Predict the structure.
Amino acid sequence: MEYRRRFRAGETVFAQGDAGQCAYVVEEGSVDIFTRAGDREILLATRQPGELFGEMAIIDDQPRSAGARAVTDCTLLMITRDQLNQRIERTDPILRMCIQVVLRHLRDTLHRLTNDGARLDAGPPEQLSREAREEALDAIRLEQELQGALDQDQLVLWYQPLVDLQKGHVAGFEALMRWRHPERGLVPPFTFIPAAERSGLIVPMTRWAFRRACLDLKDFQDAATHPPTFMSVNFSGKDFMSPDFLDAIDETLAETGTAPQVVKLEITETLLMHSPETARQVLGACRDRGTSIAIDDFGTGYSSLSYLQSLPADTLKIDQSFIRAMLNDDSSRSLVRSIVGLAKGLDMKLVAEGVEGMPEAQALRALGVDYGQGYLFAKPLPRADMIEVLRGWQDPF
Ligand code: CMP
Ligand code: MG
């Protein structure tokens, strides 16, 4: 396929009103963008190397809003409809709405400019489908409600124990966020966590959770016969990227009187893959403070082993899909066995997620997996219920 075009000085790239085939980036030379008012030509812009034009007709599927003409001999790199629209479709619904609105304003303004300020006789065509608009509005509403949740203490932290598979007692916890909505009841995390990440609200939410978890760990330690030694808290990419991330951690540790050694930061492989360098630096700084670091959902992302090895992480959490399958499926069992070997070789602790039955638990224990987490031991529970569970805890093996 052709992906680059050359034009001679003075040659037309496209005319106003044409159907658009692709957008262009100027590689060499320059291009004039112009429109007409009566017989007068109005120069709108001159595009130079590195600049983009011809994107509007591709995004909103309307005729070319202006003409384009080569000023000098030039080379243009073509951007296909698919290349542009795939990206726009993948983007946040609110951002998509903004793009459409801005385009519409621009077309409207151009139209007034070239028609002596005449009103548009027919309104511009609908550019955003009803579903797309509903999606954007739902997203805005959900984000505003989430802000409310944060302000009005509707967020709660639940805890799930991580059991020492060799000794049979509770070694630590994972703190899990829940949203108690006044009308909708308990909102599941998979609906509100992605919205929180998209809107950036996840940052204050995680800070709240981290502080709450540090405070609650002390009560759990008091309640148990074998005091649990750590609290795992989930962190997102947005948390990591926030410039005062480390300061906030330090502040919470100091304010709650928590030793960094009892804190485990849980991060997913996906986060690591999106910004590997920042992740390495920030994790290094956490590790220097003495906190431990766990890679969540291990085995479901695509991070390379060499990259993993270069990280200051000390715990791997084997994704529940492998644990579920390991009893009936030889290849899953071999995978778990290899992960055990890998973890031992790298001197890392292992957690098996999603342990639901005693046969799996026994198998994992025999393989030498350090900790198990799952319904077999306990569901995620509110703080008070967790304290009860700890008071009555008995070795499950
Ligand atoms: P498109 O409508 O596909 O084709 C004409 C292009 O001219 C348009 O995309 C924009 O890239 C560009 N364009 C339209 N209006 C303006 C403007 N007011 N100023 C600068 N560039 C414009
Ligand atoms: Mg987790």
Summary: Residues 351 and 371 are 5 Å apart (CA to CA). The mean pLDDT is 90. Residues 93-114 form the longest helix (22 residues).
